[in-house]
Amino acid sequence: xxxxxxxxxxxxxxxxxxxxxxxxxxxxxxxxxxxxxxxxxxxxxxxxxxxxxxxxxxxxxxxxxxxxxxxxxxxxxxxxxxxxxxxxxxxxxxxxxxxxxxxxxxxxxxxxxxxxxxxxxxxxxxxxxxxxxxxxxxxxxxxxxxxxxxxxxxxxxxxxxxxxxxxxxxxxxxxxxxxxxxxxxxxxxxxxxxxxxxxxxxxxxxxxxxxxxxxxxxxxxxxxxxxxxxxxxxxxxxxxxxxxxxxxxxxxxxxxxxxxxxxxxxxxxxxxxxxxxxxxxxxxxxxxxxxxxxxxxxxxxxxxxxxxxxxxxxxxxxxxxxxxxxxxxxxxxxxxxxxxxxxxxxxxxxxxxxxxxxxxxxxxxxxxxxxxxxxxxxxxxxxxxxxxxxxxxxxxxxxxxxxxxxxxxxxxxxxxxxxxxxxxxxxxxxxxxxxxxxxxxxxxxxxxxxxxxxxxxxxxxxxxxxxxxxxxxxxxxxxxxxxxxxxxxxxxxxxxxxxxxxxxxxxxxxxxxxxxxxxxxxxxxxxxxxxxxxxxxxxxxxxxxxxxxxxxxx
Length: 554
Prior knowledge:
single chain, 18 strands
């Protein structure tokens, strides 16, 4: 009787779920999807705003993570506005732009770039330096930015991908293991097919949008070259993996949905589904994290647990609690409650690992946009867990058998409503700059590092140390040139740090050659003070020189 009534008059809980789904999509669309990206520029050579004696043969920008260059979008403009740069190249996290001699070499130069960070997001920026003496800078090129249509479409497409994943995973699990024998499977099968279609659409749309996203064009424009580059990028390959997984799952899923699949078929579907799940971290923050294997594993666990939990709630409130016999629900709901508890444990565990890696320092939780979004998502999740706890109490009391499914349907509907908004926040979070990168970028902008040019009779050395702080992980980049600015290959590099005022003896550390004229390393400043930093570079079996500077550590 209750099921017939629900069919004739849509329950308030169902209307609330629909409203929440629409509200969640609105949140995903209206919360600004940052055009800022996730690779922060840490150092430049020549250093930003400095005055050097001769025009450099190359300009470099060092980022916080590996990057890829957008063809034709990195350039150097001479003081008279002439473009004097060649084709830019990337080695890991270092962007190098070759520079030819300017006809009017004295004055202020403008460097602009647009690159793709390791997590598939574009970075646009620029800086100036001067040769001889500053002058009026050349007119800047058109600002690099994400077109508003792309900024709106991207989180919406990601939201649809997450929604599709939940619609496919939870109902499929119920159909395979918990579906009542006498209840038609049509509703659950439709949910699974709709979910797979949404995942496939999200992958295709995401691959298309990646081209205008990186080039700054509107969503409806994608040049053949930009589209080819997007499809051949790690992001494009991740979308291809997702589409292949959807196709394979669709081909294998028939017996599973009918409840007739054997163990081998079930394991095959699970293996293909997990392979498809990997495409989410491979196209997001996890691929560019300091610990990629850990981040990818945690992301897969987090997404899988979310899909099982939320997908199960959807099939409960949309089909089973409306149509199944209360006695059948009395058997199904306790089993589902145990599954949900396990999924929540894995959901929270995977999310915690992700948060520790992506937020960085605890202060970044409130000091960065990413951290504040994460706090909002966590607060909503706490509310969801409270509703889930109430529903589990009803299940434990066998309320569905004694009083009907109405009360449980309300509780589960509240869970679905809140988790829909959580899903929307997740689609925005994957577009936001991680807290660790945001903090690093802010520190770099505030001048937390140091750079300079040192000269010897053998070479000119330009260096960047970032950050300059107590403890480890102070990264050093060094570049050597001849007197006329030509890159000078070096055979051996070494950096020495000492604090004579406090009796700290010199510590020698070898540097790793990244390119013939470029090396990088790391130094430790265990105590505050004015440290002496020496660079020793050997350019041939017999030619070696040392240059020194002082660095204040607070």
